[in-house]
Amino acid sequence: MNRRVHFKDFALLTSFIVGLYLFWSWRDGSVTTYVSTTRPKLIQEEHQEDEGAKELACFINRDVSKNIGLRATRKIDCLLWKGSEVFVPFSFLKSFYELVGAFPDGQAEQEFDISTSVSKLNPPNGPYNPHGEFMHFISFDVEGRSRVLCVSAGEGVPVSTQWDPKGYFYPTQIAQFSLAHYSAWHRRKSMKFEDSRTFLRLEDARTEEQENVAKVVVDDEINAPVIQFKDTLEFDLSSTKQVLSLDLKIDPAGGGTGFRILLQLDSGEQFSLSYTQSTKFIQAKENMFIFGFGEKANNRWLRLTRDLYTDLRKGLASMGDKTGIKRLKKARFKVISLVLYGAGKVANVSLSDNEHLRMFIHGANWFINNQDSEGGWPSNVVFNPGRKKYPKAQQIQPGWYGAMCQGQAISVLCRAYHATRDQRYLEAAEAALGPFLLASQDGGVKAVFMQMYDWYEEYPTQPSSFILNGFIYSLIGLYDLSVTQPASKAKVLYERGIKSLEAMLPLYDAGSATFYDLRHVSMQTS
Predict the structure, then answer these.
(1) In 3D, which of 281, 346, 349 has the Cα closest to residue 318?
(2) I want to staple 87 with a disulfide (CB 3.0 to 4.6 A). Which of 79, 256, 328, 343 is the partner?
(3) Are 288 and 263 in contact (CB under 8 A)?
């Protein structure tokens, strides 16, 4: 996919023009410039005998600085070889042109790889369809992103800090989290991988007075046997599986109820992860990290799925412990014990290597539970604060819809329907078309370019911004629903969008890249 264009791209374009000017200037002086990755000292030593290499002071933008009246000149140390070739340090090229370079394994000082991109190609696993993997999202680690505070214990979805450091639920991020886990689950299913789980039973618990602490009962709500506990119920585990799953139902009369996990790294260092009735997303106290699920388990079943590695990593991040995070990346850990305390019921307790389907369903259910009367999922943060992103557009107050969010949420719901055949997901996907029918200035996501082409806005700015990637993601969602539900209004919306894309796509052609949006047209700004 084409990448976004930002300030660095503008700087690169400017540098190219200046470089072209300098090239023609040097050409007139019979000096040809080459880029070399060889270390200047090695070249100098190698050719010192025939006096082929000489030190050379290079000045960047000297003439340009004179012309525009700014002190933009920069001096770098180069080498002139045999009077015609100029060797420029790679350290300069790397920062100036956003290049990446490295010595291949076993080829140090003999070969050097230079790349203009760090992008990785993730080829599709088959033809695209609304119940298969979602594009390249199988490679996404959404919950691991720095702008994710943690995964909510009460909702099972990521908490974003992208525009609010306190944390909030950002629908687009939740959709991407869901689609990444669905894609991973679908890949494993298609390759017939068998997931290994260890289920915990009451007889596995360690207690001196087991009958007084816990017993197996039949829960009336789910009509299934569960473990009823009071006081403290502990399981010794010593497991290397990193995903904990359980269903919890709390008796509010039992006081503070929750559970905690004790982890031990291979270095011997121990950490405690606690899941409590706190209303705070995450708290840190030395080597103990606390995740709150509030009152969501009071007298009702709450399904929890915790990636313990992610929770530990987010706990360390909340303390700003960068060294600890680096150690964790190289370390392995064991789950030493699980302790339930307070009073309540617990069922389906297991440890596994992954729970992609459960995590996907957490996301799909979030969209079911948080869809508003207009069919949308509003983002409850200010967009364009201080008019920094779009100086020619106003701030957008909390509660705005975005087409990228609506489209990716529809893609989530279509896949949830295919995976479960639960009609609620399909009904929610159909209702999500509402904002596509409303103009962006009226609270929807639809803009019109040149009074001809419908465009679904990622951010409903005024004037319209016509962001390309968000629009394409919205079309994918509409396509998914139109195929899943052929009688849906999504088909007409999708066809109108494709017509607009075919007509307007050339406007985004920036030569070697694409423009992120059309602000230079609609807002007359760079």
Answers:
(1) 281
(2) 79
(3) no
CB 241 within 8 A of CB 326: no
Burial class (CB in 10 A: 0-12, 13-18, 19+), 129: middle
Phi, psi of 347 (to 5 degrees): -145, 160
Q: Which residue has the higher pLDDT, 330 or 67?
A: 330
- Count other Cβ atoms within 10 Å, centred on residue 82: 11
Q: What is the pTM of this model?
A: 0.80
Which residues are registered as beta bridge partners of 113?
A: 102
4 pLDDT above the threshold of 80: no
**What is the DSSP code string of 398-439?**
SSB--HHHHHHHHHHHHHHHHHH--HHHHHHHHHTTGGGGSB
Q: How far is CA 449 from the centre of its chain?
A: 30
Q: Is pLDDT above 70 for 516?
A: yes
**H/E stretch holding 482:** helix 468-484
CA 474 to chain CA mean position, Å: 17
Residue 522 tokens, joined:
């609609």
Which residues does 136 contact at the CB level (< 8 Å), separation at least 6?
A: 122, 124
Q: Which of 86, 99, 39 is nearest to 60 (CA)?
A: 86
Per-residue pLDDT reduced to its tens digit, 279-323: 999 999 989 999 999 999 999 999 999 999 999 999 999 999 999
Identify the H or E element spanning 26.
Answer: helix 7-28
Task: Specify the pLDDT at position 69.
Answer: 62
Q: Residue 275 in contact with residue 267, Cβ under 8 Å?
A: no
H or E element in which residue 500 lies: helix 490-504
Rounded to 5 degrees, what angle do the CA atoms 70, 75, 78 make?
150
Counted residue by residue, the chain has a size of 526
129 vs 209 pLDDT, higher one:
129
**Using CA atoms, how far apart are residues 419 and 415, in angstroms rounded to an integer?**
6
Cα separation, 467 vs 459, in Å, equals 8
DSSP letter for 516, please.
Answer: S
